[in-house]
Design a protein that fits this description.
265 residues; alpha/beta; Rossmann fold; eight-stranded mixed beta sheet; globular
Amino acid sequence: MAVVAAGNHKGGVGKTAWVINVAAALAARGHRVLVVDLDPQANASRRLGRPFDPKHPTVSVSDVIREARAGGAADGIVPVAWEGLPSMRIDVLPSRFDLENRVYEAALLGSETRLAVALEGVAEAYDVTLIDLPPSLGHLVHLGLAAADFIVCPVEPEYDAVDGAVRLRDITENEKMLARLENPGLRFLAAFPSRVVKSKGGHQHHSASLGGLFGEGRVWPAIPTRSSISDAGDEAMPLAALGSRAAEIRALYDAHAERLWKGIA
């Protein structure tokens, strides 16, 4: 069992797409996966078919963090609404906009570990837990990192996103921050170019720089910009539902799932 947080200080880098599509690839390999949506925008929740319904409110990640009860995450976990056998191996702890309210608790003693406490005895039921972090370095990200074993950073190959990934990576090298998170074993696992457009010279330049910044062995295959990713996300369906036109991108996410599994073993 491992908990992997995916994030970048810069938004719009393909982080949520990576989380849900790697979850699907891991499930297709027979693994049980939990997705924790820690972004108040709740895009992962919606794309997995579990958007917030104000007429029928359910327990969300915000509720379990506020309660901070050991194992409390189980109260909010639901199966994804996708169809098909692999999807039956994926559950989600959904988010909603009021997750922002948890930021006001940042000054409370032990507030950073509330998600970790809520996942106690729950994450162990899954082979992999993937946390979709918000584009920030603030309290919500601290909650995710305190609960995680590893960090993975999608990096749109442009200056701001590269810089944002470095900032997140640097947390794993900051002993004072790790002590504050009560998570000294947190490790940076990998970065990878995301939303790559090969015709952009800048994308080629920044993609090539990642090995020097993060280590060649920590840079995974690039994920290019493809309409199939956004189409599947818009319709809240897995890439597999798009058939052959999503075959190339599914193979790339599967390669990431393989790298992830080897990296956490």
